[in-house]
Amino acid sequence: MIPFDRDRALEILNNATARLTARAYIREISREFDLTPFQAKKVLTSLVARQDVAYQDLYGSTYVMESFSKPVRITDRFFILPPGIESIAGPNDIDIRISAGISFGTGHHPTTRLCLAALDRLFFSTGLPGHLQGGKAGDIGTGSGVLAMAACLAGMSQCMAWETDPNAVCEACRNVAANGLENRVNVIHGIMSTQDLKLSLVMANLRFPTLKQLASDICSILVPNGHLILSGVRAWEMDNLKTHYRAMGFSIDWEREAKQWGALALTKKP
After folding, report:
1. 0.85 cut: is pTM over it?
2. Which of 205, 210, 232 is nearest to 138 (CA)?
3. Which of 133, 222, 223, 145 is nearest to 185 (CA)?
4. How many CB atoms lie within 10 A of CB 105?
5. How far apart are CA 111 and CA 41, in angstroms?
6. pLDDT in single tens digits along all 270 residues of the chain
7. Please, what is the Cα angle at 13 between 254 and 34, to 5 degrees?
8. Residue 166 contacts by C-beta under 8 Å, 6 or more apart in sequence?
9. Domains of the chain
10. Shortest CA distance to 63 belongs to which of 114, 109, 97?
11. Which of 39, 150, 196, 233 has the fewest Cβ atoms within 10 angstroms?
């Protein structure tokens, strides 16, 4: 076996700002550990065998991605793992079970991780406000349902999860069932309705133009002092997004960027 530092090898993948093909990853491993291409390929083979990474076909090309065939820690509290896999979560950790599918929100993308980091901070690092614990949430464009489920598993009583893609709706419903949240997460096939909604938390992992378009509707469904988590924007769009939502009556509580993507946590002013 060729000696190498597994964590350093995985950091190459996790720190990459673009998806890496197998060839590109082998090249980076070779450079990092001063190995021949043949030796670097053996390192990749061993990472695949250990289920640390996996090959993923996307748009006709094959990329190396972090594997979610076993539990993967996303934040201090949240793990993502497939149904049927034994948990390794500690007493203060939270498992979110996600079946592999085509819907967005498997944990691979930086924006999903940023949103989960924002939820982790909100529920476990800020001295959770009483109106949030046990309150109702909304997830606009839920995809796999990961954020809706995370919010409920962290403490919200219910979450409405809107999604327009029928395939994603089916996958979200399956994931909700796998987590035993059928009575708490309501997956809705359609666009968000603002009628009679008073939510304590709203999440939206969408692109910048859509987040601007939805700002007034989001403001109308959040209670005063309600919390908002936004992502799906490029790092260079963050200033415009903050300016737009400040003008709508929100204060910025937290922001973070990863791999040229950004996320915000905001509070609706009273």
Report:
1. yes
2. 205
3. 145
4. 30
5. 30
6. 677 788 899 999 888 888 899 999 999 999 999 999 999 999 999 999 999 989 888 777 889 988 888 899 999 999 999 999 999 999 999 999 999 877 888 888 999 999 999 999 999 987 766 667 788 999 999 999 999 999 999 999 999 999 999 999 999 999 999 999 999 999 999 999 888 789 999 999 999 999 999 999 999 999 999 999 999 999 999 999 999 999 999 999 999 999 999 999 999 999
7. 135
8. 189
9. 6-66 (1.10.10), 110-268 (3.40.50.150)
10. 109
11. 196
To which residue do tokens 């990092």 refer?
32
Cβ 224 vs Cβ 269: under 8 Å:
yes
Q: Are 167 and 102 in contact (CB under 8 A)?
A: yes
Q: Is 135 in contact with 157 (CB distance < 8 Å)?
A: yes
Count CB atoms within 10 A of the CB of residue 102.
11
Separation of alpha carbons 56 and 65, rounded Å:
7
Residue 191 contacts residue 164 (beta carbons within 8 Å): yes
Within 10 angstroms of residue 270's Cβ, the number of other Cβ atoms is: 7
